[in-house]
Specification:
109 residues; alpha+beta; Alpha-Beta Plaits; two-stranded antiparallel sheet; 4 strands; 23% strand
Length: 109
Amino acid sequence: MSDLKNWQDLPLGGVIVEAGSAAKYETGSWRTWRPVTHREHCIHCLKCWEYCPEDAIKLEDGTDAAGAPRKLVKEIEYFHCKGCGLCVRECPVNKEGKAVALEFVRDEV
C-alpha cells in the first residue's frame, strides 16, 4: 500500500490552467450530428445564438427590412460546436413547421 500515490503526486491531467482560453481548444471534433443553417428561411431572431452553450453561432452586422442596423446569423463555427441540437430545437421557424432554418445532419467523420 505504500507505493500508492497521493493526489498531490499525480501529474496534471486535462486541466486548462490559463483562464479564458477555451476558444483555443477544438471541442467539436467528436460530434456525430451537426446543425446546418438554411439562411433563406432564417428570420435572424438569434434564438440559436442565445441557446448555444458553446458560442458556436457567429453573427454579423446587417440591417432589417426598414434599414435599421441589427445582428444577423452568419454561420455555425464547427470548431466548437458539439452537436447538442439546442439551436435546432429552439428555432421558431422549425417549430412553426413552415420551413427548416436549422436541421441536424449526420456528421461526416
